[in-house]
Design brief:
Strand order of the largest sheet: 16-5-18-17
Number of strands: 19
Distance between the termini: 66 Å
Oligomer: single chain
Largest sheet: 4 strands, antiparallel
């Protein structure tokens, strides 16, 4: 048999080929297609798919934008929600839809429009004008070329032509604007009578059976989420400063090296006579001004004691002429150019010649001198000590941060070695959940977090680290979490408490207080309604107990609670007075409406309201157009989208 196969190898290969190829067509192509299966499709627009890969890329970009905007407060658990994912998917669908509409209708943008749009971008302008050099620099910084940027801009402008005409032409009817303006500005004069729930608390009672019944019916409200007890180390400037002693030799050396910081430079008090030389003045005008200045300089030099009189009579500096030309005390750097040089090169009572500056011609006299002085060491000892301590702490902080990073990884099941190595206190806290810190009554008053540590542990990055799988499940040390440049944390889960409903005995007091509040509020409401029925029987008289009249509007609520204000504004205007009852927390407030007057708005407020309403109207019309286009282009959200929208992005943290 094998001899036959060897002697007729080519024939046997041909027979096998005939047998295999048909089976490949029947089975193999399907397997090959499965092997190179396409990405899951989340939606289609005009039959064209939006894939999982496209969504994931947009989703990562969105999270990165939030991360950069929120910094240490970025918490993907609060941002990466099903609602946010659905909104993102709809944005991608709308972008694809508008691009398809623009392409089908051959919307285009002229070169001139493209140039004008780019030139109007402030980031590529220099002194309000388009700068080609700055344009190239900005694009290069973003890794883009002018060709790619302009192609994208042209595409975006073309897509914008689909909805821009709808948005820009939207205008709210004048009757609608007038109606909204009337509702916002209408003024109503009201009086209030408050029925405080606290006054009725002694009239109600709660039995143990009531507490048990409420507990059994409302366990879901009492559900305490999964929480952890944590150990943590805090490395900050305070920790790095502990135990630092500054040596006297270091203080003295620092003082000698930085004497310039602790002294006062030489100061001089000077006066001047100024003769103005207008900008663009002719040679004749300049010559006349200089002749006058030189004559005044000779007079002043001949009689320095009369310098102030000459300044009052001749100086054209309105700020100093009335003061005899006095410029006050001057330190180096306060003036510039020849004027400062003249003042700081003269001796006391010396009068200069003519000094030219951009503001005119000057004759200068130094009236007082105050030599440079340095504060004694004792006066600045505390300042120097604090500065040296801060410098040492900065170096120590860097060293401690490096050591902390190493030690929390060396022994992953405990933070105590790191605490011992760095001299840090190992702290503990309970009641930390994925969403935040539990109140003391749920976390346990002995372990509740308060003060600065509460802000540290409630940071989203810290909570995210505590609930990471290896930290939560294996109780390993987290990595070092840098909250700010001078604050670092390392955390470890000590104990996990699953989601649970507390036993009745632990929550009975809070249930009792809640039921008392509810029943006191009901009693206050009943009393308010009974009183109101009596007052309605004689509406003309003013019942006792109402406060002073107050005029309110939706724009000026006068510190009324929102519920009370809305009830007052909804009351019918005929007949008056009119009454209503509104809840303000547990209290009940009876409202008496006495007068209604139309309000007024100035032209600018009216125009702003019209613009705001037109903008909202335009958005509504945009939404209506998009809805119509979705139907026209057969937009479909496919079943695979449901899984993506509900998924939690593990990479977000």
């Amino acid at each position: 048999m094998f001899e036959l196969l060897r002697n007729h190898r080519r024939w046997m290969q041909f027979i096998l080929l005939i047998l295999i190829v048909p089976s490949f067509f029947l089975v193999g192509i399907q397997g090959y297609d499965s092997f190179i299966s396409r990405e899951p499709e989340l939606a289609t627009v005009a039959g064209q798919p939006i894939t999982r890969g496209e969504f994931d890329m947009a989703h990562r970009n969105q999270l990165e934008q939030f991360r950069q905007r929120l910094g240490t407060q970025f918490d993907p658990a609060l941002i990466d929600t099903p609602a946010m994912r659905e909104q993102l998917l709809n944005q991608i669908i709308d972008q694809r839809l508008l691009a398809q509409v623009a392409a089908d209708n051959r919307f285009s943008v002229s070169d001139g429009t493209l140039r004008n749009t780019i030139a109007a971008i402030p980031q590529v302008q220099d002194n309000g004008r388009f700068s080609p050099e700055r344009y190239r620099q900005v694009l290069a910084a973003q890794g883009m070329t002018p060709t790619s940027f302009e192609a994208g801009m042209r595409r975006d402008l073309a897509v914008g032509r689909v909805l821009d005409p709808v948005t820009q032409s939207a205008a709210v009817p004048a009757a609608v604007t007038a109606s909204v303006e009337s509702a916002l500005t209408q003024q109503r004069t009201v009086q209030l009578r408050r029925f405080n729930a606290a006054d009725f608390r002694g009239q109600v009672s709660v039995s143990p059976d009531d507490i048990k019944a409420w507990y059994d019916a409302n366990k879901q409200q009492l559900l305490v989420p999964e929480q952890v007890s944590a150990q943590y180390l805090v490395l900050n400037e305070e920790a790095a400063t502990q135990g630092i002693e500054v040596k006297e030799a270091d203080i003295a050396s620092y003082y000698e090296q930085n004497k310039g910081r602790f002294g006062q430079p030489e100061r001089r008090r000077a006066s001047h006579i100024m003769i103005e030389v207008p900008a663009g003045a002719s040679d004749d005008v300049r010559e006349q001004a200089r002749s006058k200045a030189e004559a005044l300089a000779k007079q002043a030099q001949a009689e320095p004691a009369k310098f102030a009189e000459l300044a009052r009579a001749n100086s054209q500096d309105a700020g100093s002429a009335d003061k005899g030309g006095d410029l006050g005390w001057l330190a180096p750097g306060m003036l510039s150019g020849p004027l400062e040089k003249a003042i700081f090169s003269q001796s006391k009572d010396q009068v200069s010649g003519v000094v030219e500056s951009p503001s005119g011609l000057h004759i200068v006299k130094v009236t007082e001198l105050q030599p440079a002085a340095v504060k004694p060491l004792e006066a600045v000892r505390a300042e120097i000590t604090a500065e040296i301590r801060k410098q040492i702490a900065a170096t120590r902080f860097s060293e401690m941060a490096t050591k902390l990073t190493e030690t929390v990884y060396d022994q992953r099941d405990s933070l105590q070695p790191a605490a011992d190595a760095l001299g840090l206190k190992l702290r503990s806290a309970s009641g930390i959940t994925r969403e935040g810190l539990l109140p003391a009554e749920q976390a346990g008053a002995d372990a509740a977090v308060a003060g600065p540590d509460a802000a540290l542990l409630d940071n989203p990055r810290v909570r995210q680290a505590l609930f990471a799988p290896e930290v939560l499940r294996d109780k390993q040390n987290s990595g070092v979490i840098e909250l700010t440049p001078d604050t670092m944390l390392a955390v470890r889960v000590a104990q996990v408490q699953p989601e649970h409903v507390p036993p009745l005995e632990k929550v009975s007091d809070s249930i009792r207080a809640r039921l008392l509040d509810e029943r006191a509020a009901e009693a206050a409401g009943k009393a308010a309604r009974q009183a109101l029925e009596g007052w309605k029987a004689d509406p003309a008289s003013l019942p006792e107990g109402f406060g002073a009249s107050t005029t309110v509007s939706r724009q000026q609520p006068q510190q009324l609670a929102q519920s009370v204000l809305e009830a007052a504004m909804r009351l019918p205007v005929d007949p008056l007075p009119a009454y209503a009852v509104a809840a303000d927390g547990n209290d009940q407030v009876v409202i008496r409406l006495d007068k209604v007057e139309p309000g007024t708005a100035d032209d600018s407020a009216r125009d702003m309201l019209a613009r705001q309403l037109s903008g909202a109207w335009g958005q509504a019309e945009d939404a209506a157009v998009l809805k119509m286009l979705r139907q026209q282009y057969e937009v479909k959200i496919l079943p695979a989208a449901a899984e993506v929208l509900q998924a939690q992005d593990q990479a977000a943290g």
